[in-house]
Amino acid sequence: MIVIGLAAFLVGALVLLYSSYYTSLRFKASVTLVYPENFSSRVELRGASSEKVYYTVGARGGPFNITLVFEDVNGSAIGLTQLERVSGNRTGFLRLDGIPAAFVATAQCPSCRGEVNLSVVYASFDRGVYTAIVVLGSILAMSGAIALGLGSWLIVYEERSVSLSGATQLPGEHSSSDDEGVPDGSEGRSVT
């Protein structure tokens, strides 16, 4: 029972660990803006399902003033970040007011030429599948822990019952240690 409990607990823990990976920021959408030809671009975030996004910006030339506006499915702004005087690499993390469907990147540089590479990393997962993964992992881990506890208790109970059965004797019975010449108290008494 202990082996089954340990296996169920470990599988449950691995399933719960996978749920963290399943909901992680691992999908990427990128755009390159070459100034002054295209100073603005809209990029779809297909299947985004989390309010958290991570962005990286790499600029050659500049310095650029860069604006990232995140939109929901209705086109309403749900998050905004403005980066000023970017001429190298920048990264950042945003928690938006809703689930993004797209972002609009705008680069401005009044007197320069250059290129801006933008990447947005986001999560995309099915909440029903996520819920099923968490429930399955929790059930397996709890069942495994219960089986481990029950198996340990059975082993301790069995050892205790074995040790107690050798120590309990009825009056008048002799144990093997009594046969070694140790009087049991009944010798030398007269019965009347």
Overview of this structure, please?
The chain has 192 residues and is of the alpha+beta class. It has 2 domains: 1-23 and 126-154; 24-124, Jelly Rolls (Sandwich), CATH 2.60.120. The chain is 32% helix and 34% strand. The chain has 2 helices and 8 strands, in the order αββββββββα. It has helices spanning 2-22, 127-167, and strands at 27-35, 40-44, 52-61, 64-71, 77-86, 89-95, 102-108, 114-122. The strands form 2 sheets. It has a 4-stranded antiparallel β-sheet, with no helix packed on it. A hairpin with a 5-residue loop joins strand 4 and strand 5 (77-86). The longest helix has 41 residues, at 127-167. The two termini are 58 Å apart. The model has no long low-confidence stretch (mean pLDDT 80).
What is the terminal separation in angstroms? 58 Å
Structural class: alpha+beta
Strand order of the largest sheet: 1-8-3-6
CATH topology tier name of the largest domain: Jelly Rolls
Top CATH class of the largest domain: Mainly Beta
Number of domain units: 2
Order of helices and strands: HEEEEEEEEH
State the shape. elongated
Question: Main sheet, how many strands, which sense, barrel?
Answer: 4 strands, antiparallel
Mean pLDDT: 80
